[in-house]
Amino acid sequence: MDRNSPRRTPAALYGISVTAELSGVGVQALRHYERLGLLTPERTDGGTRRYSDRDLARLERISELIDAGVNLVGVRHILALEARNVDLETDNARLRGESGGEGGAGDDGTGRRV
């Protein structure tokens, strides 16, 4: 986000029209992405969608992948793999912290036993 952008918070704040305008993604596409499970906006008690900055960032990533020629099924798989990678990196960092740091006896620094 550049310095001229309005400051945003991670809370679900934006309605579907504002999200469409901010992201450059049409309202019908947003609804379609939700049906496919690519986005899961928060809902008000009345059922109105509310999108967060995290949703906007995800939309940006979806748009990048589509612009690169990836179809929506591929986008779903890539996003799932990226999320899994983040989880694994988090687990790896936690395990390194529990074991006292990087590397160790019998470790070549890549996590592989030698």
TrEMBL record:
Pfam families: MerR_1
Basic and acidic residues composition-biased segments: 90-99
InterPro entries, alphabetized: DNA-bd_dom_put_sf (IPR009061), MerR-type_HTH_dom (IPR000551), MerR_fam (IPR047057)
Record keywords: DNA-binding
Keyword Cell wall biogenesis/degradation in annotation: no
GO molecular function, one term: DNA-binding transcription factor activity
SUPFAM superfamilies: Putative DNA-binding domain
Chain intervals for the UniProt region annotation (Disordered): 90-114
Xref: Gene3D superfamilies: 1.10.1660.10
Keyword Metal-binding in annotation: no
PANTHER family recorded: HTH-TYPE TRANSCRIPTIONAL REGULATOR YFMP, REDOX-CYCLING DRUG-SENSING TRANSCRIPTIONAL ACTIVATOR SOXR
Protein name (database record): MerR HTH family regulatory protein
Species annotation: Rhodococcus triatomae
